[in-house]
Structures are given as structure tokens and as C-alpha cells.
């Protein structure tokens, strides 16, 4: 799912928060675990995995990272979901 947010638009910021809250801490952890499995370790960079860990931590405490971090975490989530769909489709 392609996500484009205008971070200067209050409406887009609310949509961004809503999209971020769609994922629970367990779902963020499942993505982290997926990227640590053999064969998937090179899917993400160290920094991308770090943003997933930050997203999981924020989800645990019902808070929000910065807008840019939320956008980045959602982009990484999209990348993982696309990789998972590609594997299942193959």
C-alpha cells in the first residue's frame, strides 16, 4: 500500500496516526521476528530494523514517535508485507 502524507496538513497527520495505530506491538514484533529469520536477514538495513523496534516500543506504551518516524515505520511495514506476499505468491 503506497502511503503519501503531507506532514504539514493536520488531516494527513491524523490519518498517519490512525495508520500507525493499526499495528499492535505484537504485529510490530512479528515483523521484527520475520526479518531476523534465516533468508530474510538482508531484507532490511540495521536502521530499518531499528525503526521497527521503536514503533513496537511506542505501540506498547500507546504513544507516537515523530511524524517522520511513523512514515518511515509504515514504509518498512509495507516493504515487509510486500515481501511476504511475494513469497506466498511464488
Task: Explain how this protein is built.
The model has no long low-confidence stretch (mean pLDDT 91). The protein is 69% helix and 0% strand. The chain has four helices and no strands. The chain has helices at residues 10-21, 25-36, 46-60, 67-89. The chain has one domain. Helix 3 (46-60) packs across helix 4 (67-89). It is globular and about 40 Å long. The longest helix is centred in the last third of the chain and has 23 residues, at 67-89.
Q: In short, what is this structure?
A:
The chain is mainly alpha-helical. It has helices at residues 10-21, 25-36, 46-60, 67-89.
Structural features:
single chain; 90 residues; mainly alpha; 4 helices; 69% helix; 0% strand
Helix-strand layout with pairing:
Elements: H1 10-21, H2 25-36, H3 46-60, H4 67-89
Helix pairs in contact: 1-4, 2-3, 3-4
Amino acid at each position: 500500500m503506497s502511503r503519501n502524507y503531507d506532514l504539514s496538513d493536520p488531516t494527513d497527520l491524523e490519518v498517519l496516526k490512525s495508520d500507525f495505530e493499526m499495528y499492535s506491538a505484537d504485529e510490530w514484533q512479528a515483523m521484527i521476528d520475520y526479518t531476523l529469520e534465516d533468508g530474510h536477514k538482508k531484507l532490511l538495513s540495521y536502521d530499518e530494523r531499528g525503526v521497527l523496534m521503536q514503533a513496537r516500543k511506542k505501540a506498547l506504551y500507546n504513544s507516537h514517535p515523530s511524524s517522520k518516524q511513523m512514515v518511515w515505520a509504515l514504509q518498512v511495514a509495507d516493504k515487509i508485507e510486500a515481501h511476504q506476499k511475494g513469497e506466498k505468491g511464488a
